[in-house]
Amino acid sequence: GYKALAQYETFLKITNPKSFYRLFDHYVFKRKSHVLLVILLKILGIFLSLFDPIVRLSYQKSTQGIQIQKEVWSERLGRSLDVFWDKNKSQFGVTVERTSAFLNWRIFQNPNIKYNFFSSYQDDILVGYIITRQAESGFPAGVIVDVIAKENNPHIIDALVKQAILDFEERNISYITFKALEGHGFLNLAF
């Protein structure tokens, strides 16, 4: 009898078209009736791959003024996370407290799942972070677990998502998924 307060949207980004087509070949296009569709998708993939250098250049330009780094747990990071959460938690509705104690336990000390944690700084002040992981599946898939930024700043979120995409591409991940509440249309720009 509960009413949903919001719906989730699932974003999908193909990062390695050749590997992604193998996924389709394996699961979807085994039938001869799909041969034409397979050919069209492969041609589309070749066409889209021509734009890859342009996209990478735009990634680098959009992050000016925002420093992003991959993090491991440290007391300094813990203090920065607590200050960041105290200043920004009011912008969220009902959610888990993203304190340093919680993030250290859930992300950095998790014995079952290896997460990657990228933080963003402006003027040496933590202004956001993104958490990613590799999904356990037959094909290399990436998952964006969480992204949070000061005042939901779309420029910070954009820079963090683009950093995650570059990291996944460097690791030859075929595709990335991310679930977010409806209404975060600015994610379409980064994703």
What's a concise summary of this model?
With 191 residues, this protein is of the alpha+beta class. The protein has helices at 17-27, 35-49, 52-62, 75-88, 100-108, 154-170, 187-190, and strands at residues 8-14, 67-70, 115-122, 125-135, 141-149, 175-181.
Characterization of this structure:
The chain has 191 residues and is an alpha+beta fold. 42% of the residues lie in helices and 24% in strands. The chain has seven helices and six strands, in the order βαααβααβββαβα. Strands 1-6-5-4-3-2 form a six-stranded mixed β-sheet, sandwiched between helices. Helix 1 runs antiparallel to helix 2 (35-49). The longest helix is centred in the last third of the chain and has 17 residues, at 154-170. Mean pLDDT is 80; it is low at 55-62.
Features of the shown structure:
alpha+beta; elongated; 191 residues; 7 helices
List the helices and strands and how they pair.
Elements: E1 8-14, H1 17-27, H2 35-49, H3 52-62, E2 67-70, H4 75-88, H5 100-108, E3 115-122, E4 125-135, E5 141-149, H6 154-170, E6 175-181, H7 187-190
Parallel strand pairs: 5-6
Antiparallel strand pairs: 1-6, 2-3, 3-4, 4-5
Helix pairs in contact: 1-2
In spatial order, strands of the major sheet run 1-6-5-4-3-2
Helix content: 40-55%
* Main β-sheet description: 6 strands, mixed
Instruction: Count the E strands.
Output: 6
Any idea what the shape is? elongated
Report the radius of gyration as a whole number of Å.
19 Å
Low-confidence stretches: 55-62
Q: What count of helical segments does DSSP give?
A: 7
Mean pLDDT: 80
Q: Strand portion, in percent?
A: 15-25%
Helix and strand pattern:
EHHHEHHEEEHEH
Q: How widely separated are the two ends? A: 34 Å
Task: Assign the structural class, choosing from mainly alpha, mainly beta, alpha/beta, alpha+beta, or little secondary structure.
Answer: alpha+beta
